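Exercise: predict the fold of this chain.
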Amino acid sequence: MLKQWLDYIQNSQIYRSVFRTGWPDTARKKSMAMISSFLLHIHPVKVRLSGLKMSYTFCMGGITCLLFILLTVTGILLMFYYRPTVEWAYADMKDLEFSVSFGRLLRNLHRWTAHGMVLCVWLHMLRVFLTGSYKPPREFNWVIGVMLLLLTLLLSFTGYLLPWDQLAFWAVTVGTNMARATPLLGYDGPFAFLLGMRPDNDVRFALLGGTIVGQNALLRFYVLHCIVLPVAITLLMALHFWRVRKDGGISGRL
């Protein structure tokens, strides 16, 4: 009876749409399943033996991806209780801590997961550098990884303002003031005169939506944190995983 059910499932249209070659019980079917399956397309047909060792990668890339998924889930849940306005942002944070059931757990899970993601991205980049995994033919994927690192830091920075407390306000004030010294794009930076930068059109103004940290800044940081940066990171992560497969999988000795 069980075998009949298994045969029925394996021959169903849904199963065949995912695993087009059937159950991988032979070497050829295993290779075909790895090549043609939608769920397994990020894996190459052959994997280097050294790449399978835990001590070689410490799964930093996979852990980072898992943390990003957890951040997305907890962030969506937090959006149900948060209003990005100067009148209500701080009050909503207090409600999450003291009024919403498991609100403090949800917020702290989101916050500590964000810290963990930043740490894991740094460790992943360090591992890639120390093992020489940035060398040809993987140099383009290294550039994508650097872009993901920068976007992760921006994701953490934009989320810093959302609680709208004194720590967030002054930390973002200092951080955006540093942006004024950006070469070419900041009006206090080198060569700013070449592009005609002023306090009302430089990179700091673009971040804050004005010249001070206020309602416009809170709304822009909210949109960047909840939509723009997560979408950009998702697209680059998909490209990053695809290039790992196209470049022959995880680097290392055979």
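Check your answer against the key: The mean pLDDT is 89.
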